């Protein structure tokens, strides 16, 4: 656990154990802030804060010695837990331990963190307008009431140039990047990385989409919860991995987001035909492997990429992504539903998109060494760049439309099939087919190769691999069987809608 150190800036955040409520009403929140003033204010400069019913966020600068400030946080949480437990006739820990902390190492991250904290109530649908929320520091910045906000108020406003732009920037539908640079400099000594509105906007979108998808999948599973793992990439950026295992429905699955940046590796520079280029890439990637072989595996990915010249100017940018279904037993109604949902999302933007990207999906997710598809497809698109017909905003609208359609495409299938009975031979068949899934990901998949070549996090990259797999020598399905029916479709793609 990293100790808080004097003259350093931090993002402090935590939540109730098992995401339980920690603030039942306004009295709880007011009492917590009273304790913050008592214990924290003498030891830190509070730059921003927000309290929600089951978690909180603070941006701080440490102004006292390590031992004193760490003790101050311990006193704060112990005092509040004691009072809350007494009020609610409960015992034991209330907050997750240790509390989360991330060092803020550049002004750009600090600025984005201020926006993130203040807009948190709106992003979680607590209020329609974050500016009206009573338990955040936003109102202290736009009024004469400086409650809890330190003398650093003018410094924070200066990050946005002036008070007027502070409000304008908050009001814009901008996005929030929360990755940190791996550098030991103080915030004021950092150069700001290349930025673009589209990068910020999409990065914020995948954060919100990850929350939406994981919440729904936990509800569908009814037992297992996603375990979260935040990680940093030494060369720049990082990600938030969420993995679910050994549930009622999902044997293993992951819903991961990442945002990485820095110098484009030599191997990728050769691939793109450029020299001395920097890059930014972010995306959400998910794979779900259900236990029941009657429920299909699903994969989805939505991503954005930018490339910069030596001066930090954007020289190229594009979107990519898609979603595809890998059944072990073919239910034609499921295939039609999945593809119809994909088509509906595409048709809102261009009627030519579905047949075009469906065909590309069949071509891409294809094990050429087996002469068969990995699954029954869906959508696959890449290098979606601005044209006279499609601006980057148009592409953003399309990609997010597909992303928003994912749960509608997959969850009804899971609900329909998750309680069907199955046999040991059917489970064996599932594991044999999972072997084909592994082969594709390790031999052909560009995303896996990109992650490995850019020093991505191995655990996250290989999250897509199923936990139980078989390779049976020269296995052939029985003639006329349901297994053979699947193979015939994989070798001869079908137009489902």
UniProtKB/TrEMBL annotation:
<comment type="subunit">
    <text>Homodimer.</text>
</comment>
<dbReference type="GO" id="GO:0004803">
    <property type="term" value="F:transposase activity"/>
</dbReference>
<dbReference type="GO" id="GO:0005737">
    <property type="term" value="C:cytoplasm"/>
</dbReference>
<keyword id="KW-0350">Heme biosynthesis</keyword>
<keyword id="KW-0627">Porphyrin biosynthesis</keyword>
<dbReference type="InterPro" id="IPR036406">
    <property type="entry name" value="Coprogen_oxidase_aer_sf"/>
</dbReference>
<dbReference type="GO" id="GO:0006313">
    <property type="term" value="P:DNA transposition"/>
</dbReference>
<dbReference type="GO" id="GO:0004109">
    <property type="term" value="F:coproporphyrinogen oxidase activity"/>
</dbReference>
<dbReference type="Pfam" id="PF01218">
    <property type="entry name" value="Coprogen_oxidas"/>
</dbReference>
<dbReference type="GO" id="GO:0006782">
    <property type="term" value="P:protoporphyrinogen IX biosynthetic process"/>
</dbReference>
<feature type="domain" description="Transposase IS200-like">
    <location>
        <begin position="6"/>
        <end position="120"/>
    </location>
</feature>
<keyword id="KW-0560">Oxidoreductase</keyword>
<dbReference type="InterPro" id="IPR036515">
    <property type="entry name" value="Transposase_17_sf"/>
</dbReference>
<dbReference type="InterPro" id="IPR002686">
    <property type="entry name" value="Transposase_17"/>
</dbReference>
<comment type="similarity">
    <text>Belongs to the aerobic coproporphyrinogen-III oxidase family.</text>
</comment>
<comment type="pathway">
    <text>Porphyrin-containing compound metabolism; protoporphyrin-IX biosynthesis; protoporphyrinogen-IX from coproporphyrinogen-III (O2 route): step 1/1.</text>
</comment>
<dbReference type="GO" id="GO:0003677">
    <property type="term" value="F:DNA binding"/>
</dbReference>
<protein>
    <recommendedName>
        <fullName>coproporphyrinogen oxidase</fullName>
        <ecNumber>1.3.3.3</ecNumber>
    </recommendedName>
</protein>
<dbReference type="InterPro" id="IPR001260">
    <property type="entry name" value="Coprogen_oxidase_aer"/>
</dbReference>
């Amino acid at each position: 656990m990293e100790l808080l150190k004097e003259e350093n800036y931090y993002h402090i955040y935590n939540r109730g154990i098992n995401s339980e409520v920690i603030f039942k009403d306004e009295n709880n929140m007011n009492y917590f802030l009273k304790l913050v003033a008592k214990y924290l204010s003498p030891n830190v400069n509070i730059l921003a804060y927000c309290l929600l019913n089951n978690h909180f966020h603070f941006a701080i600068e440490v102004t006292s010695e390590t031992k004193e400030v760490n003790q101050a946080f311990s006193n704060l949480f112990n005092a509040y837990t004691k009072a809350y437990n007494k009020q609610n006739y409960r015992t034991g820990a209330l907050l997750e331990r240790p509390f989360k902390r991330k060092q803020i190492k550049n002004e750009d991250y600090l600025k984005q963190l201020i926006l993130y904290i203040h807009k948190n109530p709106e992003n979680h649908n607590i209020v329609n307008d974050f500016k009206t929320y009573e338990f955040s520091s936003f109102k202290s910045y736009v009024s004469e009431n400086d409650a809890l906000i330190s003398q650093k108020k003018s410094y924070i406003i200066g990050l946005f140039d002036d008070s007027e732009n502070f409000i304008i920037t908050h009001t814009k539908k901008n996005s929030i990047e929360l990755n940190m640079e791996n550098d030991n400099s103080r915030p004021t000594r950092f150069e700001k990385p290349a930025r673009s509105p589209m990068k910020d906007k999409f990065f914020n979108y995948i954060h919100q989409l990850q929350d939406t998808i994981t919440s729904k999948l936990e509800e569908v599973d009814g037992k297992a919860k996603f375990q979260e793992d935040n990680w940093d990439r030494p060369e720049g950026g990082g990600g938030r991995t969420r993995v679910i295992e050994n549930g009622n429905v999902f044997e293993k699955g992951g819903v991961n987001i990442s945002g990485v940046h820095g110098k484009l590796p030599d191997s990728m520079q050769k691939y793109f035909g450029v020299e001395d280029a920097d890059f930014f890439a972010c995306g959400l990637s998910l794979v779900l492997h259900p236990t029941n072989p009657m429920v299909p595996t699903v994969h989805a990915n939505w991503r954005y990429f930018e490339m910069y010249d030596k001066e930090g100017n954007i020289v190229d940018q594009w979107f990519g992504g898609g979603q595809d279904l890998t059944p072990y037993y073919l239910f034609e109604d499921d295939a039609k539903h999945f593809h119809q949902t994909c088509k509906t999302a595409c048709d809102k933007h261009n009627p030519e998109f579905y047949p075009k990207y469906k065909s590309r999906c069949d071509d891409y997710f294809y094990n050429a060494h087996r002469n068969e598809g990995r699954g029954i497809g869906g959508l696959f698109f890449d290098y979606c760049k601005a044209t006279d017909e499609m601006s980057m905003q148009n592409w953003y609208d399309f990609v997010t439309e597909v992303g928003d359609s994912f749960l509608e495409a997959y969850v009804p299938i899971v609900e329909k099939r998750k309680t069907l009975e199955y046999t040991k031979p059917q489970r064996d068949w599932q594991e044999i087919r999972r072997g084909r899934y592994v082969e594709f990901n390790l031999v052909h998949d560009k995303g896996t190769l990109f992650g490995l070549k850019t020093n991505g996090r191995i655990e996250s990259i290989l999250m897509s691999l199923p936990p139980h797999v078989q390779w049976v020598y020269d296995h052939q399905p029985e003639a006329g069987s349901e297994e053979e029916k699947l193979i015939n479709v994989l070798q001869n793609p079908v137009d489902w809608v």
